């Protein structure tokens, strides 16, 4: 009893005392004993405020999905889905989808796993604390009024982002809006979901008002949040509030509220209109979205900027996407699942399973949605890397020059002209430095489409999807880009969810979509990915085929016989190759539990205050996340 009480008392500062803004160790300027640990003089110095704000950006703006997870945070579970092979090979991720074990309460640590908040992923409430300090004390400083508004708008938007992330994971959580003084704690239990969303929307509105008319220069201010970003966040928040995760149709304690969909529609429409007014438009080429940075990228709305030559500002995504033959070290994160590959329609928008689609499972890449070719490299496909032209990617077993072969690779986050030698990222340097786009216009449009469909405006929903498919290069065909096959709200709902899976492939949004729509626990079957094998009844026959394929026919260029094959010819393809299904060993079918829609509080966080309650559905839980 005494030991447990001591533990609670010693950690109670988690929500209170630790909610005073502080920088990284060594940032002594932000550790002075004033204003919750910060010298009040900084709020009258624009340079000091900007430094403090930069820290908040670094800790709140998401990073590349699947990349650089902070050790001990177990953030992997928040990206586990039916999208990639990694979801069944990563130890934590496969618990989240139930293919090998189930989650325990302490496996979920999104809220934080440290009593400090100096690094990304340490503690979300430290990130919120920085925003609280800025929002509280900037108005008391002596900087110009317009400068105050610009700073405040960004802090409000960042706080909205942080609370939105917490809410979608846990439902109601402690809602701390003021800097906390360790000598005068003002602790509270978990707020209701309605209160959480009301505050998120309020912060977005405040951000929009303060950032009205504010523009940023690309050279020195890339990545700063804008009015468009705040509007998009508001629309996204209200869409989540209206969706089945928070607005189920079968919960007697919380009757379905159709009015939420109208609010979501209004906010998503406003976000789309504001984005257009601020000059946003879809990029003309889908494959160029992540390869275009700065002002030239008209689609990006919320961005985290990276650099290959600035310490601690790089990432290893290029290497993890590329094959060994192009300087990479391929990872399962970017190994497409069969589910993802099957989500791509034919080139006229017809689903591959539809009667008369023309889909051929042997030539599975042929006549597909052009986003398939832009996203996925398959055996014998053209994939120019390292500045090469007409380079072919080979994925059959034991292909010469390859190790750790994947049946398919992800093209989306690769830079074709980057030299192979520059691909590895180590000691904080190298790689492509490609920026991460957390939110782009296509998401605003699909959010708008989702809400429009639910309020009965299917024409708007179709128009948004139509524009995205037109940009992708899908042809109109006989069925209006495939939209003519849809005649009901339910069919359109399914189409939009599928469209999101394709449009945002490998962007880490699939899990959120499955949870928001309460389809996570409905996943069925087993997680698999394609494997390419050489034909032959025995090793001798397979080795003979391999020798024939890899025979050099042009010593001057190194061209091999395989490079001259037309694999769009089924007879040629089947002479050499067969496709099999690969499945991670020791895994079974999906078994996502219903309680995973709102995760548990870890003991680390739960014991930080005697007022906190565990989420229902978890051991000892009595807090209703929808309350």
Characteristics:
6% strand; two-stranded antiparallel sheet; disordered N terminus; mainly alpha; 627 residues
Question: Can you describe this structure?
Answer:
- The chain has 627 residues and is mainly α.
- The protein is built from 19 helices and twelve strands.
- The protein has helices at residues 2-11, 46-60, 91-96, 124-137, 145-170, 193-210, 218-221, 227-242, 259-277, 317-321, 338-343, 370-375, 441-454, 458-472, 489-503, 510-516, 539-549, 570-576, 603-606, and strands at residues 300-304, 376-377, 381-382, 392-393, 409-410, 425-426, 429-430, 436-440, 529-534, 552-554, 559-560, 577-582.
- The strands form six sheets. A two-stranded antiparallel ribbon has the order 1-8. A two-stranded antiparallel ribbon has the order 2-5. The chain has a two-stranded antiparallel ribbon with strand order 3-4.
- Strand 6 (425-426) and strand 7 (429-430) form a beta hairpin.
- Helix 13 packs antiparallel against helix 15.
- The longest helix is centred in the first third of the chain and has 26 residues, at 145-170.
- The two termini are 31 Å apart.
- Mean pLDDT is 91; it is low at 1-36.
